[in-house]
């Protein structure tokens, strides 16, 4: 049997296993609408430049639109015989409009075509992911606004360090998400360049108009070198990299939620709508949502690595290796989108902070020790000297099973004559937090400013 897809150079058909191996239709069907849009712009350009007649151009555009309708109604389901979405469309078009359908591929290659499709797809998805980031930030901000005066232990090395406003802690994630949102906007600028018209690799002898198709498709500019245009996937790697950073941030928050929910911390209770039980232990309530987010982070990193390695040895220009970009991108988009949605819901309704437990936590540790040193330093004692002195107090207090607030004024004054009765107020947790009013600090005034700034960012 002759091969139905290829030119008459071929005498026999593909081995069926190889046909499956070679085909991308199972997944690149996701590009269908973008392929139609790209092809319509190309067909219009062919008409406008006189490469085909205006009537032919119109027939192509209409036929492509019919395929769009068929697809939306679930009637367009090409199989492996079509190899990929591009061939599937061309075949169906020719069935629909007759021989003129065979003119669509004039002055074009699947190489510039697929590059166009992937960019249109990613441009859309980036916009949607940015909206999901906004919703996530909104959820963080709402929670932060409710918890300005809720205190939470702050950690370094996961050892109690200094107490914080819970809002300050949550706003740290807001800032990360803000960078993610901005970074994706930056990536979008390099996604939004048209490779259409680069041809197979070298351009085309036809008098095409690349500016016309670029403009029709909303691209900001066109690739200046045809070899680069058909083989560049930097934008895909940049996207996978930005997506990986989103996952880093979600995964760090997920990790915190997981231990906050543990019996050891008891900082949050998990809501029923976002947690799961055990098939054997009736008492269990498990934080599956943040665990899945943490777990899925690995596959997004994997896609970034996969794309980098896919590219590193490719000679110019197009190589079939590039077909592998699609599943990596599709899965990255699906995973990041799903994780952003899940974490947003988790923040909105899946966890409740326990202010009493948090207050107790910050009242029962030595996280106010820095403030004792600061107290003396403010009275002129060199900080290092004060620091050493307080270290000694912590040691003796630990041995006596006491906290700093339990020391009598006599004891304070024996340690250093600079201590006065206001030391107790200075080391109360809320005051310890309030005092850190330096720019960007956890002091309540600073946090209120940060909330306002964050709110403005979401509204602008
Ligand atoms: N399915 C192919 C891909 O995803 C389309 C481009 C094929 N081009 C080629 N010269 N084989 O990359």
From TrEMBL:
InterPro entries: Arg_succ_lyase_C, Argininosuccinate_lyase, Fumarase/histidase_N, Fumarate_lyase_CS, Fumarate_lyase_fam, Fumarate_lyase_N, L-Aspartase-like. One of its GO terms (molecular function) is argininosuccinate lyase activity. This is Argininosuccinate lyase. Residues 9-302 form the Fumarate lyase N-terminal domain. HAMAP family: Arg_succ_lyase. It is found in: Cytoplasm. GO terms for biological process: L-arginine biosynthetic process via ornithine. PANTHER family: ARGININOSUCCINATE LYASE (PTHR43814). It holds the Pfam family Lyase_1. Belongs to the lyase 1 family. Argininosuccinate lyase subfamily. Residues 366-434 form the Argininosuccinate lyase C-terminal domain. Transmembrane segments: none annotated. Pathway: Amino-acid biosynthesis; L-arginine biosynthesis; L-arginine from L-ornithine and carbamoyl phosphate: step 3/3. It catalyses: 2-(N(omega)-L-arginino)succinate = fumarate + L-arginine. The keyword Nucleotide-binding does not apply. One of its GO terms (cellular component) is cytosol. Keywords: Amino-acid biosynthesis, Arginine biosynthesis, Cytoplasm, Lyase. Its EC number is 4.3.2.1. It comes from the Bacteria.
